[in-house]
Write a structure and sequence with these properties.
The complex is a heterodimer of chains A (90) and B (230). By secondary structure, chain A is an all-alpha fold. Chain A is 51% helix and 0% strand. Chain A has a single domain, classed as Non-ribosomal Peptide Synthetase Peptidyl Carrier Protein, Chain A. The chains are: A mainly alpha (90), B alpha/beta (230).
Chain lengths: 90, 230
């Protein structure tokens, strides 16, 4: 899965979360937008986000060696997944 | 997707995860992980002053009988938590200073007893977490009924605990984390912790009170949302 595919799947997932909670989903969601500050991911949905990313990428999300902020944005998530894939293959 | 702890019996890997869990409270894990983690509805208390425990569970049930406890102690791998569940109430003491000294020598991750322990003065000198629901000086003395196998899947505190599920306990309580979700749950807890730390820092820095930061007045006036997410 390339970066744009990941972004597209994440946007679709986040739109679903927003619909569930009655929030408006922004017309435009940039790779560096903070998903938490926008209210798209909350303390109660963060685990669903993690499991979704694990599911679509096949890559376990382990923040032990990363700053939590790595998971705040689409770009950060892509970088995190790429980094963990690299660690797995090393 | 399910991801198991990479090396189930790797003591170093368990130790690393335990250290990471020590940075996140059970309350945060429960908030961040929803239905994935389950709170143990048991009045478990630290009996030797060590306030936290985390590790894969090695469970066994007993009926005031020491034999299953000794069988399980003998088989519990380093880093794992020996979980003793007594079906008798009130419980006789299933563990004291001698059993705990052996658990320490075997490098177990902790001892959790749904039932009673004893010898608290001596336990205080042993650097291994010991939690129990009861304390009594009356020792379990029978060794009649051997466990058909160890470890066992047990039911305690309203929750089914399977061998390898992680137990995480602190002053707030205990949660059970399915073995195949440990990494995801830990990551969710770390994310929530970071957000909560930021919110607390904002309050300390004078950015606003909790009422102001959550938009309480607007919400009560019907003109805004209550922003309680962190």
């Amino acid at each position: 899965m390339d970066r744009d595919d990941l972004y597209a799947q994440l946007r679709e997932f986040l739109a679903g979360l927003a619909a569930e909670s009655g929030r408006e989903f922004p017309d435009r969601l940039d790779p560096d937008d903070n998903l938490f500050d926008l209210g798209l991911v909350t303390s109660f949905s963060v685990i669903r986000m993690i499991l979704f990313v694990e599911d679509v990428t096949g890559c376990p999300i382990d923040l032990a060696d990363h700053e939590p902020q790595a998971f705040y944005t689409l770009a950060g998530i892509h970088t995190l997944v790429a980094s963990q894939r690299q660690e797995e293959s090393a | 997707m399910t991801t198991t702890v990479e090396h189930r019996f790797d003591e170093a890997a368990i130790t690393r995860l335990r250290q990471e869990f020590s940075q996140v409270s059970t309350s945060q894990l429960a908030d961040a992980s929803g239905d994935l983690v389950t709170a143990l509805r048991l009045p478990l208390r630290s009996r030797n002053g060590l306030p936290r425990v985390a590790g894969p569970a090695f469970p066994v049930t007993t009926d005031d009988d020491m034999l299953p406890c000794l069988q399980a102690l003998a088989a519990t791998p380093p880093g794992w938590i020996l979980l003793l569940v007594n079906e008798q109430r009130p419980s006789e003491a299933l563990a004291g200073d001698i059993l705990t000294a052996s658990a320490l020598a075997q490098r177990l991750g902790g001892l959790v007893v749904d039932g009673a322990v004893r010898d608290l003065d001596d336990l205080a000198e042993l650097p291994i977490p010991v939690f129990s629901t009861e304390v009594t000086l009356v020792s379990a003395r029978t060794t009649r009924e051997r466990a058909p196998h160890v470890p066992q899947t047990v039911r305690t505190g309203g929750v089914e605990v399977r061998p390898g599920d992680w137990l995480v306990g602190d002053a707030d309580g205990f949660v059970v984390v399915p073995e195949d979700k440990v990494t995801a749950v830990l990551s969710a807890g770390r994310l929530l912790r970071a957000r909560e730390d930021r919110l607390k820092q904002s309050i300390r820095d004078g950015a606003g009170t909790l009422a102001e930061l959550t938009g309480l007045a607007d919400f009560l006036a019907g003109t805004g949302e209550l922003r309680f997410e962190v």
